[in-house]
């Protein structure tokens, strides 16, 4: 398996500020990995609101079930995340493990188990022994520090080749509030399944129902618009925490999603979600190129997204991009197989600004030379105009390389 | 691109008998390939009935449109197939080309253009100049011979590594009737899209509506149950011709799908369709292993098939098979992402006869050693029992290897 850092990794990482009301600690619990951190505790001050979205898998992991149950309460005091074992498809033992972790974390943080959130990523089908790390939680709560966001991002990595962090500071009313986020992505755990985890926190005083509405809306054009290989994890988890600590500095309490003062915050949050989602794509297994697929002129936005995902998930399109081949015929194929309304003879296709096909046939004016040069870039944009409506959507993926097959075809160790 | 014959190719090929009422000729038209045949004409005696099924792509090729139009007539006198150019996404020029080919073939065969069928496979988006081969059709009709079925299978190959043929002789009433079939599969045309073409003919006297009913039913568990990479071609075409010549030898004319005398014929036809479909899978790009995926205990047969295709199309499952890794966690993932009714805690998974997971967790009795040995076979069976109903389905695919990426990621020449 490759351990080289993705060529699409950020050129520089932001310095992550503290979020008032959040303390972070990590540890080497030795769950599977040696010589690196694999346990994260994020401790929140009393009054922290929480929102979450999860995998749509019909076979979710035990921690996903645990978080879904607790989300109704809307309150969080501690988040516990381990890497190395996903606690997925572990039956009753899985539930026992999340129950034990929940109790240990509640004791450590001085809260109820209903205010605990947890996530696990790594090998699936192996029972996760909570006893391997639950005794460490009290120490982590005691040692937590506000400025360890990058360390947090490192502790939750599996085969990610770089830690994923993003931050923004914006006005809420007249007061500065900060949003920090971390993510782990489509790396495989030697070589079990990819899992997307992301945790975002802010000091803004935003009520849980508003937070949930922001997150549910924000996830559609960001985390739900990226795909590495069309395979949905059992464990995908995105949680958003709001400590409300900025209220002391004068930030207004937001209790209504229609509150006009939310504008800047909402845009910044969506930007962070998109930033993290794209970092996940750019660290996709074996990825050498980022691919942006935009579909315009579809019957509806929903139809556009389906067609865009059909293009982005097509192995033939993805291998063509890997081969730097502007193979628009495969884009036609992927539009055709999406099953959405389309008229072959109205279809146009671009790679970057190069229109290769128009009105259902090859564009007579297209330059093979310019297009070939374009395909050598490490960010490739594909656009398909369906020509029958106003529906529009953009999704992101990466190319499909031999390295992907190597990473995922190795024997499980 | 690899030119080695697939390791899953048949150990021996059947000798293909003649079908009374069918004459075959091939030619080197030089449409794209050099030094090989790329044009096939199959000429049928008057009175030949025809049935067909086609790609579900919303962007079908011009020949698919042409065949669909003619199918309503139910009569066929000539089939013309070229390889090297798919005449797909060629706009008006595509229709002009099929019209010209239709006229030339009708003149050559002494029939109406409505009795002509045609198919094209190869590069897409390039106009197909009918003039490159239409002048050859009269000669092909004149030179046609009954015993050139294997030559026919060779002429329609693109990057297939072996010709695909199958034959059976069965009783219709008290008379022997023969069914011959050829197919070309999921090879890429250097490196444009894969296309599945198959042509089956019989001397049995079966009326077109009965033929269509047999074919539409037969295709579901055969050609519509195989997948190489989830990418649907613009050009998939399966045609079934019945010359009726066996009537002279006493075979009964069949005009009703419920005719009890059809039993043997129906079984033989379905077997040929399955045989050809599996040959396509076994010649899938880069394929090293055939994978049979069976889902049992689903809510319905339809639901079972969706789950089975979710497993068979999962890049993570397919790379695991390539790596000879019995990674049942990825099967759980693929069941979960199918979006069909499933209960994680009732799920069981087998590789061959090795049960790896049961009641939602790892089977404590499973033997790593026996399973590892099993995964080294070149035919691997995966079974998932969903545990909630009686729905059942089987589909076939191949593994996903680095060779697939190499074949499809090379520059288009």
TrEMBL record, chains A, B:
<feature type="binding site">
    <location>
        <position position="413"/>
    </location>
    <ligand>
        <name>substrate</name>
    </ligand>
</feature>
<keyword id="KW-0012">Acyltransferase</keyword>
<dbReference type="GO" id="GO:0004358">
    <property type="term" value="F:L-glutamate N-acetyltransferase activity, acting on acetyl-L-ornithine as donor"/>
</dbReference>
<comment type="subunit">
    <text>Heterotetramer of two alpha and two beta chains.</text>
</comment>
<feature type="binding site">
    <location>
        <position position="195"/>
    </location>
    <ligand>
        <name>substrate</name>
    </ligand>
</feature>
<dbReference type="GO" id="GO:0006526">
    <property type="term" value="P:L-arginine biosynthetic process"/>
</dbReference>
<feature type="binding site">
    <location>
        <position position="158"/>
    </location>
    <ligand>
        <name>substrate</name>
    </ligand>
</feature>
<comment type="function">
    <text>Catalyzes two activities which are involved in the cyclic version of arginine biosynthesis: the synthesis of N-acetylglutamate from glutamate and acetyl-CoA as the acetyl donor, and of ornithine by transacetylation between N(2)-acetylornithine and glutamate.</text>
</comment>
<dbReference type="InterPro" id="IPR002813">
    <property type="entry name" value="Arg_biosynth_ArgJ"/>
</dbReference>
<protein>
    <recommendedName>
        <fullName>Arginine biosynthesis bifunctional protein ArgJ</fullName>
        <ecNumber>2.3.1.35</ecNumber>
        <ecNumber>2.3.1.1</ecNumber>
    </recommendedName>
</protein>
<feature type="binding site">
    <location>
        <position position="184"/>
    </location>
    <ligand>
        <name>substrate</name>
    </ligand>
</feature>
<keyword id="KW-0963">Cytoplasm</keyword>
<feature type="binding site">
    <location>
        <position position="285"/>
    </location>
    <ligand>
        <name>substrate</name>
    </ligand>
</feature>
<dbReference type="InterPro" id="IPR016117">
    <property type="entry name" value="ArgJ-like_dom_sf"/>
</dbReference>
<feature type="site" description="Involved in the stabilization of negative charge on the oxyanion by the formation of the oxyanion hole">
    <location>
        <position position="121"/>
    </location>
</feature>
<feature type="binding site">
    <location>
        <position position="408"/>
    </location>
    <ligand>
        <name>substrate</name>
    </ligand>
</feature>
<feature type="site" description="Cleavage; by autolysis">
    <location>
        <begin position="194"/>
        <end position="195"/>
    </location>
</feature>
<feature type="site" description="Involved in the stabilization of negative charge on the oxyanion by the formation of the oxyanion hole">
    <location>
        <position position="122"/>
    </location>
</feature>
<dbReference type="Pfam" id="PF01960">
    <property type="entry name" value="ArgJ"/>
</dbReference>
<keyword id="KW-0511">Multifunctional enzyme</keyword>
<dbReference type="InterPro" id="IPR042195">
    <property type="entry name" value="ArgJ_beta_C"/>
</dbReference>
<dbReference type="GO" id="GO:0005737">
    <property type="term" value="C:cytoplasm"/>
</dbReference>
<keyword id="KW-0808">Transferase</keyword>
<comment type="pathway">
    <text>Amino-acid biosynthesis; L-arginine biosynthesis; L-ornithine and N-acetyl-L-glutamate from L-glutamate and N(2)-acetyl-L-ornithine (cyclic): step 1/1.</text>
</comment>
<keyword id="KW-0028">Amino-acid biosynthesis</keyword>
<feature type="active site" description="Nucleophile">
    <location>
        <position position="195"/>
    </location>
</feature>
<dbReference type="GO" id="GO:0004042">
    <property type="term" value="F:L-glutamate N-acetyltransferase activity"/>
</dbReference>
<dbReference type="GO" id="GO:0006592">
    <property type="term" value="P:ornithine biosynthetic process"/>
</dbReference>
<comment type="similarity">
    <text>Belongs to the ArgJ family.</text>
</comment>
<comment type="pathway">
    <text>Amino-acid biosynthesis; L-arginine biosynthesis; N(2)-acetyl-L-ornithine from L-glutamate: step 1/4.</text>
</comment>
<keyword id="KW-0055">Arginine biosynthesis</keyword>
<keyword id="KW-0068">Autocatalytic cleavage</keyword>
